[in-house]
Write a structure and sequence with these properties.
The complex is a heterodimer of chains A (251) and B (455).
Chain A: E1 2-11, E2 14-24, E3 29-33, H1 40-48, E4 54-62, E5 65-66, H2 72-78, E6 80-83, E7 90-94, H3 95-109, H4 117-130, E8 141-142, H5 148-162, E9 166-170, H6 178-191, E10 197-202, E11 215-220, E12 223-228, H7 230-239
Parallel strand pairs in A: 3-10, 3-11, 6-9, 9-10
Antiparallel strand pairs in A: 1-2, 1-4, 4-5, 7-8, 11-12
Chain B: H1 5-29, H2 32-48, H3 64-67, E1 72-73, H4 85-93, E2 102-107, E3 110-111, E4 117-118, E5 126-129, H5 130-134, H6 156-164, E6 167-173, E7 183-189, E8 196-206, E9 211-220, E10 226-236, E11 241-249, E12 255-264, E13 269-278, E14 281-290, E15 296-305, E16 310-319, E17 325-334, E18 339-348, E19 356-365, E20 371-380, E21 386-394, H7 398-405, H8 411-427, H9 433-446
Helix pairs in contact in B: 1-2, 2-6, 7-8, 8-9
């Protein structure tokens, strides 16, 4: 589904990703772990098309198409979803108004009929129930006055509504208490299917108790230095990242 | 280029000739007190001279495009040209639909009876064109209010209006009467080939415990050059509530100079919301005097400008007595090479202890070539008060834009949504639903292709 080859990315004159490669197949869940500054969030944002980063080398293929050629909205319509580490507040735009515009933009692109207000509301209610979100969230402005946990749940709600093929979760677990963590994980697990893939970018092993990954990758200094199964996450939790530093030295 | 002094005098001469053109008619058709008012006003106009950018109050607004235009003036005799079908259609739709207490339509300053409708009014309520009411037996009742709160000294445009106003609206709500539906006033300008000036006057009086909503809309009816020089007087008596809207949608070549002069009595509440959608040069000035204890004033505004349009908002809130409160929120959206001015003056007199005043001005610049000059002006002479102000100028938030696009919205859709949201902070305060929807629609039309630098 996703094939990242030798990806090199800079921000300003700073090199962040230095030749990152990653293969993700449909149905798989990949966890990407690493210390602060290793490039985890950059990878997530580059996949979604953030233009503050510059791709200086390598390629990203998504379902046979060059992802790097697409605008952010095209990527979303093709089925890439990024759950933001810091969800953005949009004063004056109601959650439902925004979500309906978004869902219909994606549906239109996929050749599906647009949802009318009634059908949309029914679907939204169901998904919000799943995430234990209060009905009041519908009319509130996007993320304005939401707590950290509410913002993260709102991201997962958007994901559930857009039904992406590839979901990238950027530190969705940070700042969540254990109850919120379970709710978010349930939301992600509900979306798991043989047709979909999930990339979980995280700092902590904890989330992976709830979203069981098929693969765990360690990102250090802009490169994946070690890949393994879910047990690698436990090892990292125990030993930290220092023991892998030697493997991150530029070749 | 600045006009020379000679040119300025010539321009004065043009408007003076408009006055002379109708002087005889004035004497025969209006009560003596009013003719006297007009004669005083034309004298003030002659003394005042048009403002230049040397005047502090006009520093960023150059009125020479107005005073260099040779306007024609349709005097008291009425409209000189027949009405086009287009005008008739517009007269119906401007300002939106929805229930109204009355809808008065004026074309180039003249009352258009056929487009107006006045429903059955509660006892004592007077709504109609000023000129019609001047013919009534109790016309002298107007004398108590009309022009009483205006200061003409060194105010060329206000003086011109006071001398030349052809017609306008009168809304009087007697004590203890509350009108639930808004009074709609529509002022249409139509050049029909020659630049045309209209001077309209609105007088709103809410007596003790009365309540009224009035919405004025000024709009160009065609693409010719028009100048609407409007004065609105609002008098809110003890504990009265006045909710007022001033919307301007002139064309790219037309000018609007509007003054709203409001006077609030004991515990009265006045709210005024000014929306400038378009126009070559638009100046909206709101002056509120809170002249009794516990008076409350809310001034809100939204201004849009693009291309080479210029929009200027000046507010003055004069807290003269204790326990008054006021709040202001003005949002501006500028594109292209547009220029805008916000000047918010708050005066707290020595007597006005426990005043609570705050002011906010936020600007969204969609292009690097747009300019805003924003200035709070606090003049506080009391020591136990709370006054705050803040101004921001910014571009569209790239984070928000990326977020919306990452959810599948096209760049243009995302931009439009963010503009709507920014404007919504003000438009959500528009209580009459029909007017709000009309303004929202106009906003979408005006900014359907905002530039917003970037890819």
């Amino acid at each position: 589904m996703l094939s990242v080859k030798n990806l090199q990315v800079t921000a300003g004159d700073r090199e962040i990703l230095r030749g990152l490669s990653l293969e993700v197949k449909a149905g798989e869940v990949h966890a990407i772990m690493g210390p602060n500054g290793s490039g985890k969030s950059t990878l997530a944002q580059v996949l979604a098309g953030r233009d503050t980063y510059h791709v200086t080398g390598g390629s990203v293929d998504f379902m046979g198409k060059n992802l790097l050629d697409m605008k952010p909205e095209e990527r979303a319509r093709e089925g890439v979803f990024l759950a933001f580490q810091y969800p953005v507040e949009i004063p004056g735009v109601s959650n439902m108004y925004f979500m309906r515009a978004s869902v219909n933009a994606v549906r239109k692109h996929r050749g599906m009929p647009e949802l009318d207000a009634f059908d949309f509301l029914e679907t939204a209610k169901k998904k919000m129930g799943l995430l234990q979100m209060d009905a009041a969230f519908r009319e509130r402005a996007v993320n304005v006055g939401f707590s950290g946990g509410e913002k993260k749940r709102n991201e997962i709600f958007q994901m559930a509504m857009l039904e992406p093929k590839l979901a990238v979760l950027d530190e969705t677990d940070s700042g969540l208490d254990i109850d919120a963590l379970r709710i978010v994980a349930d939301g992600v697990n509900a979306l798991r299917s043989p047709e979909r893939a999930v990339i979980v970018v995280t700092h902590y092993q904890r989330l992976l108790n709830y979203i069981i990954p098929d693969f765990v990758h360690v990102l250090l200094n802009g490169r994946i230095v070690r890949s393994g199964g879910k047990e690698l996450a436990l090892e990292l939790d125990e030993k930290g990242y220092a023991w892998l530093e030697s493997e991150a030295v530029p070749a | 280029m600045m006009p020379t002094e000679l040119e300025i005098t010539e321009r004065q001469e043009l408007f003076l000739s408009h006055f002379r053109q109708q002087e005889a008619q004035l004497l025969s058709s209006e009560p003596a007190w009013l003719t006297e008012q007009r004669q005083d006003a034309i004298q003030s106009f002659q003394d005042a001279e048009f403002p230049t950018t040397q005047d502090e109050d006009w520093r960023y607004t150059n009125v020479s495009p107005i005073i260099q235009t040779a306007f024609r003036y349709e005097g008291l005799g009425g409209q000189s040209s027949p009405e086009s079908a287009e005008i008739s259609a517009q007269a119906k739709s401007i300002g939106g639909d929805g229930p109204v207490t009355a809808r008065l339509v004026f074309v180039n300053g003249h009352y258009s009876e056929k487009h107006s409708s006045i429903g059955s009014l509660p006892a004592g309520v007077r709504i109609g064109s000023l000129r019609t009411l001047l013919r009534a037996k109790d016309a002298d009742g107007l004398r108590v209010y009309l022009g009483r709160t205006l200061n003409l000294r060194r105010q060329a445009f206000t003086s011109l209006n006071a001398a030349l106003w052809q017609d306008g609206a009168f809304v009087l709500v007697p004590q203890n009467v509350a009108l639930t539906d808004p009074v709609q006033l529509v002022y249409l300008s139509t050049a029909q080939g020659a630049p045309t000036a209209a001077h309209s006057r609105t007088l709103i009086v809410a007596e003790r415990n009365a309540q009224v909503t009035v919405a004025e809309t000024f709009q160009a009816g065609d693409d010719g050059i028009c100048f609407s020089n409007a004065v609105t007087e609002i008098v809110a008596g003890e504990n009265a509530v006045v909710d007022y809207y001033h919307s301007v949608r002139e064309n790219n070549r037309s000018f609007h100079i509007g003054l709203v002069q409001a006077y609030a009595g004991h515990a009265a509440q006045i709210s005024a919301l000014a929306v400038s959608l378009s126009g070559a040069l638009v100046r909206n000035e709101v002056r509120a005097v809170l002249d009794a204890e516990g008076a409350d004033c809310t001034l809100n505004g939204l201004y849009l400008a693009k291309g080479v349009q210029h929009v200027d908002n000046h507010t003055t809130i004069d807290h003269a007595k204790p326990h008054g409160s006021s709040r202001q929120v003005y949002n501006g959206i500028l594109d292209g090479h547009a220029t805008a001015v916000f000047n918010g003056r708050v005066i707290v007199r020595p007597d006005a202890q426990k005043t609570d005043a705050n002011q906010k001005n936020r600007n969204l610049l969609l292009s690097a070539d747009a300019t805003i000059d924003t200035k709070p002006q606090l003049e506080i002479s009391a020591n136990d008060v709370r006054c705050t102000h803040g101004a921001t100028v910014g571009q569209m938030d790239p984070e928000a834009l990326f977020f919306l696009r990452s959810r599948g919205l096209q760049r243009e859709e995302a931009v439009a949504l963010l503009i709507q949201a920014f404007a919504g902070e003000i438009l959500d305060k528009v209580k009459p639903e029909g007017l709000r929807h009309w303004l929202e629609g106009a906003l979408r039309t005006e900014f359907s292709n905002a530039s917003v630098a970037g890819k």
